From TrEMBL:
It comes from Lasiosphaeria hispida. This is NAD(P)-binding domain-containing protein. Residues 13-204 form the NAD(P)-binding domain. GO terms for biological process: alkaloid metabolic process. Pfam families: NAD_binding_10. One of its GO terms (molecular function) is oxidoreductase activity.
Length: 310
């Protein structure tokens, strides 16, 4: 799979929806991983906080410690050095994430990292704000031969419906799904499939040096999701199609900051006018496995939508 299987892959957001799956898949492939998060939980966990630069060194120290320990056992040699060559980059939860992410890319490069795999989004082109700027930066460094890179641009995650509190609560308590997407369709993708593409991009011998638009197998509107959930749950689930403004207010009422709520509801409006209306064969061609259909995902997690028993 890789030329550097003894070097740990640094997975930022290693406890999150995508990062935790990457760490698990790497471990299953016997590739060591360091799963970074603010608490550093888990067997491969390491403390890393975007807001506390003192913690940025931690993964590199952990890798050096592990590599010197490995050599200790094999040869008795005690000198260690950083062995992180590949980094999965997940943005911090702020709107203007580009400056700090580019600073970290340079920080990691100074410590020997060579390959960067960025999680961006289908809606963000290279050069656009936030991850789009990091995308352009990696591409530019790549053109100069200074890094190997890949940018993952997944569409909307199937997991949103089962993990985002707004959706879970409205499904449990009201049997409703809210959006401002009208009849717009989305090729909902599984985080397992995104992680599988990431693992290939992080570990395969030849550097990808390209972007991957990662889409699921079927185009489904929120009405279609409501129909699938109605069948699976055995009770009527209704899609409530809000205006963009009403969705923005709903997001804010659930605690989302104003500017983030505006951005999220404008993305629903883009879906409404067809921005996500396409499928491709990226998951199959990169991983060798067909992407998971939404119904299969929903079946596997359906207990999360059962109403709480009083
Ligand atoms: N959801 C979608 O439909 C969708 C579609 C396309 C693209 N995306 C992109 O996917 C990304 C989100 O991925 P995800 O769902 O896997 O994330 P997630 O589940 O929200 O996980 C976030 C991760 O970041 C860590 N984290 C949070 N604050 C941190 C900080 N200050 N310093 C260090 N680590 C921190 C969290 O761990 P701790 O909290 O334990 O620190 C966690 O591991 C976003 O960039 C989004 O734009 C999402």
């Amino acid at each position: 799979m890789t030329t550097s299987q003894t070097n740990p892959v640094l997975v930022l957001g290693g406890t999150g929806t995508v990062g935790s799956r990457i760490a698990k898949q790497l471990s299953a492939a016997s590739v060591p991983a360091l799963a970074a998060s603010r608490n550093g939980t888990g067997a491969d966990g390491v403390v890393f906080d975007w807001e506390d630069r003192k913690t940025w060194e931690n993964p590199f120290k952990a890798a050096a410690k592990a590599s010197s320990k490995g050599r200790d056992e094999a040869t008795g040699n005690t000198s260690g050095s950083s062995r992180i060559k590949s980094v999965f980059l997940l943005a911090p939860p702020v709107l203007d994430s580009a400056p700090i992410m580019m600073e970290f890319v340079d920080f990691a490069r100074q410590r020997g990292a060579r390959r960067f795999v960025l999680l961006s989004a289908s809606a963000i082109e290279a050069g656009e704000p936030a991850m789009g700027k990091v995308h352009a930066y990696l591409r530019e460094l790549g053109c100069r031969g200074e890094v190997d890179w890949a940018v993952l641009r997944p569409t909307w995650f199937q997991q949103n419906v089962a993990e985002q509190e707004g959706h879970v609560r409205s499904l449990r308590e009201e049997s409703k799904l809210y959006s401002a997407t009208g009849e717009g369709k989305i090729p909902w993708v599984s985080a397992d499939d995104i992680a599988a593409v990431a693992v290939q991009a992080l570990t395969r011998k030849d550097p990808p040096n390209t972007e991957f638009v990662i889409l699921g197998p079927q185009l489904l509107s929120y009405d279609d999701l409501a129909e699938i959930l109605t069948e699976l749950l055995g009770r009527k689930i209704v899609h409530v199609d809000l205006s963009t403004r009403d969705l923005e207010e709903r997001h804010q009422s659930l605690g989302m900051p104003e500017n983030y709520a505006r951005m999220m509801s404008s993305l629903d409006n883009a879906i409404k006018v067809g921005s996500e209306n396409r499928v491709n064969d990226v998951v199959l061609s990169v991983t060798g496995r067909a992407p998971k259909p939404f119904r299969e995902f929903a079946e596997s997690v359906k207990s999360v939508w059962e109403p709480a028993v009083a």
